[in-house]
Every structure is written in structure tokens, then in C-alpha cells.
Amino acid sequence: MEHTIVTKLENIKSQCDNELIQRVIEDAIENNEDAQSWLEDVRQYGCQSGAVSGLIYHSDTKEFFKEYAVEIGEAFFESAELINIQRVKDSINSFDWFAWFGYEWAVGEVLSKLENYDASEYPDSEEEQG
Question: For the DUF7222 domain, which residue ranges apply (predicted)?
Fold first, then answer.
């Protein structure tokens, strides 16, 4: 039986130790069967577009950054080595930028895991569905 998007996300989350990625998966699951299109919208339009309701206001981005600072920092330095990340614009608060960066990075990681999803890697879920 083919796994639904929600089942896939739950399986990925169960094997993930990155709290930021887990948070993105939880947000996506809240969108139920629209999770895939929601993730793709966040990847295409970014957090700055308002696609992530919990990261619109500065107070929210600051709180999000503080909660996931370690994960965001690791993602930033990993990405900085791979690509030339531009300096944060002075007109954008750095909490906003880093919160959006971290969330968008995690969305990319989740989408990559979905694109490479192999149900055989999640044997327990096969038993539950059968």
C-alpha cells in the first residue's frame, strides 16, 4: 500500500533528530493532504511572503530564532560553505532573516527526503498499514 504524504512525513520525523526539521514536518502535517503543496509554496515563495503564519511578525521570528538557534546556525554554516550567501540587508532585521533562512532550509531538507522516500526504510509503518 502506498504511503500518504502524512505517513511519509511522520516516518521521516520519527528518524530525524533535527528539531528544526521536526518543527517544519509538524507544520506541514497540520496542512494534512495539502502538505506537499504547502512545502513547495514555502520553498518557492519563502517565509517573507507570509506563507508561514508563525513567522510573520518580528516578535515571532525572534522567538523562533532563539528556539532553533543551534540548528539554524549549523544550517547556515553548512550552506555558506556550499554557496555564496549574501550579507543580510540592513533593512531586514537579522532575527527575521535567520528565522526565515532556517525555516526555508528545513523545508528544502524535508522536500528532499520526500523526493527520495523509500518505504522499505520504514518497516514498522508497513505493518501498521497492512
Answer: 23-96
The 3-class secondary structure across the chain, one letter per residue, is CCCCHHHHHHHHHHCCCCHHHHHHHHHHHHCHHHHHHHHHHHHHHCHHHCCCHHHCCHHHHHHHHHHCHHHHHHHHHHHHHHCCCCCCCCCCCHHHHHHHHHHHHHHHHHHHHHHCCCHHHCHHHHHHHC
User: Could you state, in order of their start, the residue ranges of all structural domains in the chain?
Assistant: 5-129
How confident is the prediction for the chain on average, in pLDDT?
Answer: 87
pLDDT tens profile 23-33:
999 999 998 66
The x, y and z cell numbers of residue 122, run together, are 520504514
